[in-house]
Amino acid sequence: MSRRCSAPLEENARHDLLEVIDDRAGTRSTILTSQLLVEHWHGWINDPTLADALLNRLVHIAYRIVTDAATIQIPCNRGENTGHELAK
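The structure assignment produced for this chain is given below.
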């Protein structure tokens, strides 16, 4: 797993994400993007039960587009609100 932007989710963020996905599941389209492979989401979500619930709502009915590692990556600046800078 990449160490970039891969800190496990905090408890409140896990529950917020599940609430949003649960509200939309089966009723609305949702676009979700990530640089983290689905195989690593259990570690990122950091709660096996919530990870299973999220992945059950997302993965089994999803259209997945996986790109190669040569794509541009945006650095993770946790202390700053500058998520639009390109890596140098």
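Interim note for the steering committee: The longest helix spans residues 11-24. The chain has a mean pLDDT of 78.
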